[in-house]
Amino acid sequence: MRILLVSPKFASGWKPYIMPPIGLCYLKASLTKAGFKDTKVLDASNYSIKRIKREIEIYRPDIIGVTCFTEARHNALDVTRVAKELGATTILGGVHPTFMYKQILDNYKSVDIVVVGEGEETIVELAKSLVRGKWESIGGLVLRYKDQIIVGSERERIEDLDSIPYPDYSDLDLKRYDEFPILTSRGCPFQCVFCSARACWGNWRHRSVPNVVKELGYSVSRYGRKSFIITDDIFSASSKRVEELCQALVDSKLGIKWKIQTRVDSVTLPLLGLMKEAGCTGIVFGVESGSPTILKNLNKKEDIESVVEAFTWCNQVGICSTFNVLIGAPGETVETLNETRELIRRCRPSIVSTAVLRVYPGTPLWAQEEYSDDWLLGGGETLYYTKAMRLNEMYRHSREMRMLQARLNGMKGYLNLIKFGMVSLRRIPSKVFRSIG
User: Fold this and answer.
1) Which residues contact 419 (CB under 8 A, 6 or more apart)?
2) Which residue intervals of the chain bear CATH 3.40.50.280?
3) What's the pLDDT tens digit per position in 78-87?
4) Cβ neighbourhood burial of 152 (10 Å; 0-12, 13-18, 19+)
5) pTM, rounded to two decimals
6) Closest C-alpha among 118, 222, 114, 221 to residue 163
7) Which CATH architecture has domain 3-151?
8) Residue 437's pLDDT is what?
9) What's the CATH fold of domain 179-436?
């Protein structure tokens, strides 16, 4: 049995090949371990649908699995359409179909099966079932069979993350990627209204320190990588585990560099000092706002003084700090944005990163606002939250936040603005950019 796992083209404006499709590479590793040696990962993040079709015709897979994010769902569905025309069994997985499996199977006949949530164990059981020639009810699967939608039982999340083999990147040209990912935990203990991580991945679970260090050493020797981005939703949920990991990295003498994202209330000055010693070069903090009102509306459960402390400590130990700003939250006003600007001035982050609020299935905001699922059947890619501010107004404030960072950091700030700002501008839909003017 031949299996092709496809990462399709991203949404409009997003740069391809930022990092390897780690989720699909985990699936390949699990399938290969289970004996399905003819499994291939295709990163088609800059491929036209015609080129993807040619790749399918060359490889001739029996099964095609496609990863699907909300904003890139049309591209993913195009792949399933072409795959179905060529006679393959089609599987859709990822965050978007995890929440929208019924709508997808009801409306898109090119999708045979949806994998809900974590896929490593599910896809192996599915492949074994298809080898036996049976369409079976499997936990974590929803499938179409004889014009009926069969929903399998909910699958328990994988508690022993060490049991999952390391991602298999052997099909990819790793030189083309800006970042090399490693995942040390899954899930999140928090539930911010704009995020689906808790709903999709559950509560926080982590790999053991020896297992993580072993993979890092393997990646250094196998792929020649010395710089990593840790893609955990919240890296420092357990300070004790971070301390153990950092000490193990110091002792290992791997000499690697790494970046993370986490919360401001999940770090301390001593912990940051140890992280710096162990090779941490950058931290992205999801601050989102400098307004206590907006933080409450977003269910961030953070306070302003914790934000100031975290950035002060990063500056003291010499770790590059990124202040994430989310613009347009429920209750957002010019006054609340001014509170955010004032907090940025107090914190003096290395980088200010901005985003306007988008609404995704599986998030508390999607449920609270009672958005119709029918919107997803239209041609739009992105659903923006515009009940507090108009879209062009949000982007105008985003641009002003970037300029504030440049002014605070002098020449270095303006260089960062050129480097990161132009990337952001390319991601703004052209019709929105014209309206900013």
Assistant:
1) none
2) 3-151
3) 999 999 999 9
4) buried
5) 0.93
6) 118
7) 3-Layer(aba) Sandwich (3.40)
8) 25
9) TIM Barrel (3.20.20)
